[in-house]
Amino acid sequence: MERPVQTAPGPLGSSVDRRRLLTAGGAVAGLVLLDQLAPRPVAAAARPRVSDPFTLGVASGDPLPDGVVLWTRLAPDPLHGGGMPDADVQVDWEVAGDERFAGVVRRGSTLARPGAAHSVHVDVRGLEPATWYWYRFRVDGQLSPVGRTRTAPAAGSSPRRLRFGFVSCQNYQEGFWPAWENLAEEDLDLVVHLGDYIYESGRSAIPVPRGHLGGETRTLADYRTRHALYKTDPALRAAHAAFPFVLTYDDHEVENNYAGGIPENPAETPGFLERRAAAYRAWWEHLPLRVPAPAGPDALVHRRFAFGDLAEMSVLDTRQYRTDQPCGDNLQVRCAAALDPAATMTGPEQERWLLGGLDRSAARWNVIAQQTMMAQMDFLAGPAQLFLMDQWDGYVAARNRLLGFLLHRRPSNPVVISGDIHSSWVADLEADFAEPGSATVGTEFVGTSISSSFPTPLVPLIDAALPDNPHIRYFDGLKHGYVRCELDQQRWRSDYRVVPTVLLRHVPARTAVSFEVESGQAGAHRA
Ligand code: FE
Ligand code: CA
């Protein structure tokens, strides 16, 4: 299952690389010049050569038509603070049009700094649109694994198709990641991660396939070690090395069900913003993001990507600006607070940004990549109703503003992709769920988890309640996997790719079900 792009570094790779550089003519001069210009890495000479600094792999993300962010973090001892000296270290990088690096098109040097856990984020520009590239890093003569990435199509172009996978919820303690291993072998242009990249909980007291290290994450050191632990998984590293990623976070990157500055347990509110700052910082340090490095409790994560005239993707942050979950969190009878117009998932500023972007968009498909299920879901069969208050069902007025906007302003083909709930759903988004026969204004695909578990006792309850929720087209609460999407100018297709178990590392995925959306007609139908 060795991927061709996973070229091992090793001493041979190193010398081969040097020979290539010597034959690369002018490029060598450029590199030498960069060497001289760059601040001397204080530690390079003093420290004995570390073992492998690239244990956490490489990654790329936030693709633009002319650029992409390349990431790595130097961590020879990833589970014990990283193992790097307390000094800046020079990291060279190069990007080529081929996996053997015969044709290097961009190269440069940057510094891995202790304050960023020796992570680097290189925003490479000057690349060609809709093009595959290969990249690698070098530190002290040691080469990183090779990553592959792809730029977005040019603005104004009409791409024939776009293929991406979307994922969420990879609790390390609840299983292995055959979903990642299978996804890494797919034919995709990018991967979208909707959050719960890590889980904050301490080591499980009950037997689990593999355990977290230490207690619940609270400090920057805790969050760094947790991210590093997740990156020790080879399947996750393979997926990062295979495709560019677009990521947002959900709650568990900080803490279960937090909302804005309010933690799960309100008694822990003092100090929570410091914890959030540590969590956001570690999240940024470990992922290929083109967002400002969080230097306090605030992050700027919502952003938009365009894929020619075929698709535009608005990526949301529905945690940082949220008002507290109403009615007591979790599954509840809906109380008045769930209908409060001031209750918000996005905050007013991000809401304006979202609606404004949808209004201006000329793209065929308008993707809203976000965290929790948007469609209404009454979990109780019969006239009594139960809703999950952490989802958009706890923020009804905010949802009605968005869905009402879709009804009146008619942006082209809105499709919401969601995660969080560790189960698979397909739903028609109705302009007003309170009104029977309300117009379908959008489509929602909710992907299941990579490995996080769903409470199986809920499955028969939900199955029994589905007739009360006719806009829900599909539900499956027993599987793990990812969703593979392919869109062209006429059609969107979502394949629910599932694995039979997360108790094994290597099992093949299959397509459980496929749904399609026709352009110009909101709502999904079985393919
Ligand atoms: Fe989750
Ligand atoms: Ca979640």
Structural class: alpha+beta
Bound compounds, please? fe (iii) ion, calcium ion
Largest beta sheet: strand ordering: 5-2-1-11-10-9-21-22-23-24
Low-confidence parts: 1-48
* Average pLDDT metric: 92
Principal-axis shape equals: globular
Describe this structure in words.
The chain is globular and about 70 Å long. It has ten helices and 24 strands. Strand 23 and strand 24 form a beta hairpin. 51% of the residues are buried. The chain has helices at residues 10-23, 26-37, 42-46, 178-184, 220-231, 234-242, 272-285, 348-360, 396-409, 458-465; strands spanning 58-64, 67-73, 89-96, 104-112, 119-124, 132-139, 142-143, 147-150, 162-167, 190-193, 244-247, 303-307, 311-315, 331-332, 365-369, 387-388, 414-418, 424-430, 440-446, 472-476, 480-487, 491-499, 510-518, 521-526. A ten-stranded mixed β-sheet has the order 5-2-1-11-10-9-21-22-23-24. It has a seven-stranded mixed β-sheet with strand order 12-13-15-17-19-18-20, covered by helices on one side. Helix 4 packs parallel to helix 6 and helix 5 packs parallel to helix 7 (272-285).
Topology:
Layout: H1 10-23, H2 26-37, H3 42-46, E1 58-64, E2 67-73, E3 89-96, E4 104-112, E5 119-124, E6 132-139, E7 142-143, E8 147-150, E9 162-167, H4 178-184, E10 190-193, H5 220-231, H6 234-242, E11 244-247, H7 272-285, E12 303-307, E13 311-315, E14 331-332, H8 348-360, E15 365-369, E16 387-388, H9 396-409, E17 414-418, E18 424-430, E19 440-446, H10 458-465, E20 472-476, E21 480-487, E22 491-499, E23 510-518, E24 521-526
Parallel strand pairs: 1-11, 9-10, 10-11, 13-15, 15-17, 17-19
Antiparallel strand pairs: 1-2, 2-5, 3-4, 3-6, 6-7, 6-8, 9-21, 12-13, 14-16, 18-19, 18-20, 21-22, 22-23, 23-24
Fe (iii) ion (FE) binds next to loops.
